[in-house]
């Protein structure tokens, strides 16, 4: 029905790859679909983390847009834009990747990434400074209110001249 969008949320790696056929079908049927896929933590990308594959490249030819969210404050704006993109023009699927560190609460990410460890020597202090900065940026503005209303959907309509009346 008009104004509706299909949504699927799947885990990283095999969860995402198992949707390829369905997303291709949605593309061919011009069906608006939002695929939300998990991903390895941003700091672990490209370092052999469990289920870390280049998911964006996998869906680039199947989706109208493929985006990876980098900070907590970007989750809502990214999802709003993705939904509008899926429904605008020729409808179709979009893929939004949410790395696990963007989804977890602040206290868990801070504990996991090393908020409590004290660095030894200059190298340790630099690493500690980098990780603290990373966490601060990841969550900067995360608690500010966000507009969650739908963005306008652009649906081009033919004029009478184009239709030939």
How does this structure look, described?
The chain has eight helices and four strands; from the N terminus they run E-H-H-E-H-E-H-E-H-H-H-H. The protein has helices spanning 14-17, 20-28, 55-59, 75-87, 100-103, 106-113, 121-139, 160-163, and strands spanning 6-10, 33-39, 65-68, 93-99. It has two domains: 1-103, Rossmann fold, CATH 3.40.50; 105-145. The chain has 165 residues and is an alpha/beta fold. It has a four-stranded parallel beta sheet with strand order 1-2-4-3, with helices on both faces. Helix 6 runs antiparallel to helix 7. Residues 3-58 form the Thiamine pyrophosphate enzyme N-terminal TPP-binding domain. This is ILVBL protein. It comes from Fregata magnificens. One of its GO terms (biological process) is isoleucine biosynthetic process. Belongs to the TPP enzyme family.
Task: Briefly characterize the structure.
Helix content is 40%, strand content 14%. With 165 residues, it is of the alpha/beta class. The two termini are 27 Å apart.
């Amino acid at each position: 029905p008009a104004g509706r969008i299909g949504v699927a949320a799947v885990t990283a790696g095999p969860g995402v790859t198992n949707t390829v056929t369905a997303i291709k079908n949605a593309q061919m049927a011009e069906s608006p679909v939002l695929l939300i896929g998990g991903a390895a933590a941003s700091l672990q990308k490209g370092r052999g983390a469990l289920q870390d594959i280049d998911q964006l490249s996998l869906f680039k030819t199947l989706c109208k847009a493929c985006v990876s969210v980098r900070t907590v404050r970007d989750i809502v704006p990214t999802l709003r834009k993705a939904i509008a993109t899926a429904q605008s023009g020729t409808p179709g699927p979009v893929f939004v990747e949410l790395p696990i560190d963007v989804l977890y609460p602040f206290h868990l990410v801070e504990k996991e990434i090393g908020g409590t460890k004290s660095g030894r020597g200059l190298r340790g202090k630099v690493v500690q400074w980098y990780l603290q900065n990373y966490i601060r940026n990841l969550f900067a503005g995360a608690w500010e209110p966000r507009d969650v209303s739908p963005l306008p959907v652009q649906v081009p309509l033919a004029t009478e001249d184009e239709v030939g009346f």
